[in-house]
């Protein structure tokens, strides 16, 4: 664990445990996800009503679900951000704020090596469209304490608007753990501010391959700017370097 205090370690463990329990519940053979997959297949086959029904039920199901980054992935992005000395991070899709804690710990520890002026710019810009999740995220960050909370700026609402202004001049690291249709719109907003060598990590690119087709098409058409590979984590974790 990157955290030193027992209270923060206990919080991370509790949140990871809760997230896994939620995933197991909805993934049961007789669970809600089975019905949703059937509706999705109908929608993909051209049934517009089934597709609309799927989207509504999916949104309802996920509204109170954490479905956070797995612990091994969270540890990876923490160590990656430490290795990159990343202090200007954007997280698209904070949910209940679990992965944000890892990112904020890395930012804070990296910022401790900077001068006072540089330290002022160090932060994780987290986004969340669901108000109830934003409330819980803030509660978790408050519980995590000052070594986490002070490094996070939460932007609530549609990220196409909330990320459209007041970004760092150079972004070091981006995490996409969000509804996949929003990945490309978010990347387009962030791209002008990505620094050369910025790293982008996207979760579940294998298990949600269909949803990531637009993202993969986007970076393939910009091969001169993006270099990407999928790491062998559960569901697939894509590692992309911006190097125009």
Please, could you describe this protein's structure?
InterPro entries: SAM-dependent_MTases_sf (IPR029063), SAM_O-MeTrfase (IPR002935). The two termini are 34 Å apart. Strand 4 (171-176), helix 10 and strand 5 (194-203) form a beta-alpha-beta unit. The protein is globular and about 60 Å long. The model has no long low-confidence stretch (mean pLDDT 88). Helix content is 49%, strand content 18%. It contains 11 helices and 7 strands.
Q: Between the first and last Cα atoms, what is the distance in angstroms? A: 34 Å
**Into which percentage range does the β-strand content fall?**
15-25%
**DSSP helix count?**
11
What's the oligomerization state? single chain
Identify the CATH architecture of the largest domain: 3-Layer(aba) Sandwich
What is the approximate shape?
Answer: globular
Q: Within the largest sheet, what's the order of strands?
A: 3-2-1-4-5-7-6
Which CATH first-tier class of the largest domain would you pick? Alpha Beta
> What does the largest sheet look like?
7 strands, mixed
Mean pLDDT: 88
Number of domain modules: 2
Rounded radius of gyration (Å): 18 Å
Organism: Xylaria grammica
InterPro entries: SAM-dependent_MTases_sf, SAM_O-MeTrfase
Keywords: Methyltransferase, S-adenosyl-L-methionine, Transferase
Family: Belongs to the class I-like SAM-binding methyltransferase superfamily. Cation-dependent O-methyltransferase family.
